[in-house]
Design brief:
The structure is a single chain. This protein is α/β, with parallel strands linked by helices and about 300 residues long. Helices cover about 30% and strands about 30% of the residues. It has eight helices and 14 strands. It has helices at about 15-25, 55-70, 90-95, 140-155, 170-180, 190-205, 235-240, 265-270, and strands at about 5-10, 30-35, 40-50, 80-85, 100, 105-110, 125-130, 160-165, 185-190, 210-215, 225-230, 250-260, 275-285, 285-295. It has a seven-stranded mixed β-sheet, with helices on both faces. A four-stranded antiparallel β-sheet has the order 2-3-1-4. A three-stranded mixed β-sheet has the order 5-6-7. α1 packs antiparallel against α2, α4 (about 140-155) runs parallel beside α5 (about 170-180) and α7 packs parallel to α8. It is globular, with a radius of gyration of 20 Å.
């Protein structure tokens, strides 16, 4: 079979959003190529479309989807190249590197080899083995990195953790490996994400600590010491209005990201109007992570 390769080079923080658009039309997956470094500012995203009778329509859909995305992140037009049948699935896997995030976290694609180096790497590294599949959350996006760095500071043994919009399960996996005797509920409204997160939990031997739920905030009961919501600002605002704060224990904390710096004030206002207060904010590039808690009674 012949394939149509779609290729576009974008800023690193836009890569996962581009990959999400491309994955709608390339069910075999997409490739994010960092080149020879795990900290590249520019990355290349590739996807492969089967060359059949629907190819013209799907090419137009890809162009239209990327055009809409370019209104948020300026980016060049994609290039399209016809290629012969090949094992490109194996080749794109070579583009995902081992990532070192925060102080201790290492994200290792499931097909890569990695061993800590005495005297070079930390002896207490936490290694997450990850198979991204088609779910959001490879560790490349600044919001994921901000959440992981914040999670390192906040998670404690014995906590109850709620991960809303779990994607690949990357935050739930990190929580399970950073602290002992932890109980995690990981929620996503995408069944594909739940399947990927379940596979990753099994691969990291933390299935006993993570319960997966196909659903949304409305399907969640109980209260939690830590809530993780790496989604989008409008979704976080809506969840605040739907009672997100009620799911926090009195001393619990919400870690909210997927928020552009220009959206911070609107999100903070929504949290404050719904029983929460801002405790801290951190920015990386155009993105912020907010830590909030319940308003304390005087």
């Amino acid at each position: 079979m012949e394939w149509l390769e779609v290729k576009i080079t974008v800023e690193a923080e836009a890569a996962e959003a581009v990959a999400e658009v491309l994955s709608r039309y390339a069910p075999q997956g997409v490739a994010i190529d960092l080149g020879n470094t795990s900290t590249a500012e520019q990355v290349t995203v590739r996807a492969y479309l089967a060359h059949d009778e629907t190819i013209a329509e799907r090419q137009h859909q890809v162009e239209e989807g990327l055009w809409h995305l370019s209104q948020i992140w300026p980016m060049p037009a994609p290039t399209f190249t016809s290629i012969a049948d090949q094992d490109w699935t194996a080749s794109w896997r070579e583009t995902l590197p081992v990532l070192h995030l925060g102080r201790r976290i290492v994200i290792k694609p499931s097909w890569r080899e990695y061993s800590p180096r005495p005297g070079v790497t930390r002896p207490d590294e936490v290694i997450l083995e990850l198979d991204p599949g088609q779910a959001f959350g490879t560790g490349l996006h600044p919001t994921t990195q901000l959440c992981l760095e914040t999670l390192e500071l906040l998670v404690q043994p014995g906590m109850r953790v709620l991960d809303l919009g779990t994607g690949t399960g990357i935050l739930a996996l990190a929580a399970a490996k950073l602290a002992a005797s932890i109980e995690i509920l990981a929620v996503d409204n995408d069944p594909n994400a739940i399947a990927v997160a379940r596979r990753n939990a099994r691969m990291n031997e933390v299935s006993a600590n993570i319960r997966l739920l196909h659903g949304s905030l409305n399907d969640v009961s109980g209260t939690y010491d830590l809530i993780l919501a790496n989604i989008l600002a409008p979704v976080i605002i809506e969840m605040a209005q739907l009672g997100l704060g009620a799911r926090l224990r009195p001393e619990g904390k919400l870690v909210a990201s997927g928020i552009l710096a220009e959206q911070q004030a609107e999100v903070v206002t929504a949290l404050q109007q719904n029983g929460m207060e801002l405790l801290s904010a951190q920015q990386k590039g155009d993105w912020v992570v907010l830590v909030a808690g319940r308003v304390r009674s005087v």
